[in-house]
Design a protein that fits this description.
With 144 residues, this protein is of the alpha/beta class. It folds into two domains: 66 residues, no CATH class; 58 residues, no CATH class. It has three helices and seven strands; from the N terminus they run E-H-H-E-E-E-H-E-E-E. The strands form two sheets. It has a four-stranded mixed sheet with strand order 4-7-6-5, covered by helices on one side. A three-stranded mixed sheet has the order 1-3-2, covered by helices on one side. It is elongated and about 55 Å long.
Length: 144
């Protein structure tokens, strides 16, 4: 049996660097160092064929604990609901009004970065409250 040691989450998008930098701000992630021999990612990008320039970008957890996020340019826009989404865990261990306050505070921060607020789903006896959101290209995620 093969043991999976790392997971990368890939986003289809129109503007990979822009979306990656948004998620860096959301999660406290960083852009990895440019490939060896290049001072910057822009320097590396200029060596690619024109059709591949700006076609992808990535970010990573500076601690190495979280998954790497990879953003790839695709020609089509988002049409339907995501089948997979990220839960940004800002309310872990909190309940009731304290949890709602944490969700609302993080929502306000992310809306200022360009996110769109969605529906607030209140605790129902089985699940705690969460807040549905969209990133700057409409990809759904939840504040949980």
């Amino acid at each position: 049996m093969v043991l999976i040691r790392q997971v990368q989450v890939t986003f289809d998008c129109a503007e990979p660097e822009r979306v990656a930098r948004f998620w860096c701000e959301v999660l406290g992630y960083v852009v990895p160092p440019a490939p060896e021999g290049f001072a910057t990612w822009d320097d590396f990008d200029r060596t690619l064929p024109p059709e591949r320039q700006g076609a992808s970008f990535a970010c990573q957890d500076p601690s190495g604990a979280g998954p790497r996020l990879y953003f790839q340019r695709v020609p089509e826009g988002k049409v339907v609901k995501n089948r997979v989404h990220l839960d940004v865990r800002v309310g872990t261990g909190l309940v009731g009004d304290e949890r709602l306050a944490a969700l609302e505070s993080e929502c306000a921060r992310l809306v200022a970065l360009g996110a769109v607020r969605g529906q607030l789903l209140l605790a129902d006896g089985e699940n705690e409250s969460c807040l549905q959101m969209q990133d700057i290209e409409g990809n759904e995620f939840c504040l949980d």
